[in-house]
């Protein structure tokens, strides 16, 4: 309860910050980053989104936090647009299903993009596959309206939700983010490895790109490249890091 009250003030007090984890191609080229929210709590600890996002989702706070995350991501894109080394990089932002269902979401998103003056094509929104288990048709309509703004969609934690292949075919999604459990099980089990291959084939049939999450070893990366996976994210390449650490990391690439 205490934490909930503090979270209510966190946005106004500038305690929500973004860390960024790079996303790369098979040859190591960086294509963008995923923005991951952190709460710099007054006690000094950096709280994980696993703690405060579910808490925020219990009330309308998720809308405020979600909008703040979008604002910061767009500000970063605006700064990056000033340098030839960073102007092509995309930022992927996680959107909570509740946030997407809120009626002001699309207009607020439009305002944030206009105010930052960024190219909407550099903003990618991630929705988890499980978000489609209820209200799928309403969600698909919202996703289409947002795609019409020039923003692209990625389906997060793919393979762990309950979306049908029929729904998947109708989604305005450019990228499937394969849940890290498939990547991690593939090394140990032959059946898991074949499943991973089939998931990548699904992305190809749907004309979507496939990003493997949680890639921690060269062996995993090479296996995935061999299966036709085209994007990668994981500790093998880089951990989530602050914006200034990311800028140093990018320079070193
Ligand atoms: O940052 P970390 O790797 O601990 O992320 C944990 C979880 O929190 C992930 O599932 C991620 O999708 C989620 N998450 C991180 N940032 C945000 C955010 O800004 N909004 C929402 N809705 N979820 C987020
Ligand atoms: O939104 P999503 O649930 O995909 O959030 C990404 C989460 O995965 C974050 O919590 C991030 O810290 C975590 N993560 C990123 N790379 C790796 C990795 O290589 N291994 C593991 N175990 N977790 C990772
Ligand atoms: Mn994500
Ligand atoms: Na994920």
TrEMBL record:
The keyword Transmembrane helix applies. Keywords: Membrane, Transmembrane, Transmembrane helix. The keyword Transmembrane applies. Residues 1-253 form the EAL domain. It comes from the Bacteria. This is EAL domain-containing protein (Putative c-di-GMP-specific phosphodiesterase class I). The chain holds residues 194 to 446 of 446 of the full protein.
